[in-house]
Design brief:
With 340 residues, this protein is α/β, with parallel strands linked by helices. It has two domains: 2-63, Alpha-Beta Plaits; 83-337, Alpha-Beta Barrel (TIM Barrel). It has helices spanning 10-22, 44-48, 107-119, 144-157, 171-177, 191-200, 214-225, 254-261, 280-289, 316-332, and strands spanning 2-4, 26-31, 36-41, 58-61, 83-85, 88-90, 94-100, 124-126, 161-164, 180-183, 204-207, 232-236, 266-268, 294-300, 314-315, 336-337. It has an eight-stranded parallel barrel with strand order 7-8-9-10-11-12-13-14, surrounded by eight helices. A four-stranded antiparallel beta sheet has the order 2-3-1-4, with helices on one face. Strands 5-6 form a two-stranded antiparallel sheet. β2 (26-31) and β3 form a beta hairpin. α9 packs parallel to α10. The two termini are 35 Å apart. The model has no long low-confidence stretch (mean pLDDT 96). It binds phosphoenolpyruvate and manganese (II) ion (MN). Phosphoenolpyruvate (PEP) is lined by residues 102, 128, 132, 184-186, 207, 237, 269, 272.
């Protein structure tokens, strides 16, 4: 990582980029308010041919020994990345409240749920059109029709859409609607999918795999960042442990652990680990207190009739209380729910 001097000229920056590319590395430029940082990504022996110390405009060089580079906090000189999605900010002091049903089921369900979460203060709307179901015989999502209903819900509420991409063949359709592409836990290590989302440049919500370590999640995010897409959020959603008293073990320590290592915003999904709605609010508040930059909660207008994840979806009538408590805890930890 090449840290340029405060006030380094455009010419000096261009010269460093040229040198980086000459030795066969790729240059990832990050311009902060004061400093420009250039990441030279390539083989270690190529990096070593660079010897840029003393080059005009170069302040110092920081070797990043980690197996991920662009995701590392060092790469942003310790600062937090702040993403902007449909006028809402995520990261730093900005908190995102993403809510909506597990899956898009039909027009009435989607629009009723969307309007309620918007009125109750959600900042983004979730809903899956392509569902990664454990059994191939379970409902797989409405597909394109689901995307169409999400577009309608966005039109009605103005909320940016978070929706999952399962298969690269659906990328263009998903790009037509999604403000944030969700990469589900089961696809965290689908590297070709990650690279294509990287190339698309669209903001991504990368969920932690069921059995992935924090470091594996960071390395997966690097596959997106490496393609030039800086708009990545990481998401803790619960991992597999020996515990069977609930669906997954929500690993809230992943929040401070990730935030120590990365500048990327960290989101928590408080719904899939409990697997039942009466535990969702406390996990939401705990996530905010743990330092998360946002939560993504499953909310449904009539959860008992939901096609999937019925037990864990919070009814829209309860979401307002959850939302206002989240807002209070966010204020305690110095964050504001970011609305357009
Ligand atoms: C979901 O968000 O509905 C979902 C399927 O999540 P995960 O990939 O974390 O299981
Ligand atoms: Mn779900």
């Amino acid at each position: 990582m090449i840290v340029m001097k405060e006030g380094a000229t455009e010419e000096e920056i261009a010269h460093v980029i040229e040198r980086v590319e000459q030795v066969g590395c790729s240059a990832h430029v990050s311009k902060g308010e004061l400093l420009t940082v250039i990441g030279a990504i390539g083989d270690r022996d190529k990096d070593q041919q660079l010897s840029l110390e003393g080059t005009p405009g170069v302040d110092h060089i920081v070797p990043i020994a980690k197996p991920y580079k662009l995701a590392s906090r060092q790469f942003k000189d310790g600062a937090d990345s702040v993403l902007e999605i449909g006028g809402r900010k995520v990261g730093g002091a900005n908190f995102a409240l993403m809510a909506g049903p597990c899956t898009v089921e039909n027009r009435d369900q989607m629009l009723a749920s969307a309007k309620s979460v918007a009125e109750a203060g959600a900042t983004m709307l979730r809903g899956g059109a392509y569902k990664p179901r454990t059994s191939p015989y379970s409902f797989q999502g409405l597909g394109r029709e689901g995307l169409r209903l999400l577009a309608e819900a966005k039109e009605e509420t103005g909320l940016p859409i978070v929706t999952e991409l399962l298969d690269l063949r659906d990328l263009d359709d998903v790009l037509d609607v999604a403000d944030v592409i969700q990469i589900g836990a089961r696809n965290m290590q689908n590297y070709s999918l990650l690279a294509e989302i990287g190339k698309s440049g669209r903001p991504a919500l990368l969920k932690r795999g069921l059995s992935a370590t924090v470091e594996e999640l960071l390395m997966a995010s690097e596959y997106i960042l490496k393609e030039g897409n800086e708009n990545v959020m990481l998401c803790e959603r619960g991992i597999r442990t020996y515990e069977t008293a609930y669906r997954f073990t929500l690993d809230l320590l992943a929040v401070p652990a990730l935030k120590e290592q990365t500048h990327l915003p960290v989101i928590v999904d408080p719904s899939h680990a409990p697997g039942r709605r009466d535990w969702v609010e406390s996990m939401s508040l705990a996530a905010v207190a743990a330092g998360a930059d946002g939560i993504i909660v499953e909310v449904h207008n009539d959860p008992d009739k939901a096609i999937c994840d019925a037990a864990q979806q919070v009814p829209t009538s309860d979401f307002r209380a959850l939302s206002s408590k989240v807002e209070s805890i966010a204020a305690v930890v110095g964050k504001t729910v970011s609305r357009a």
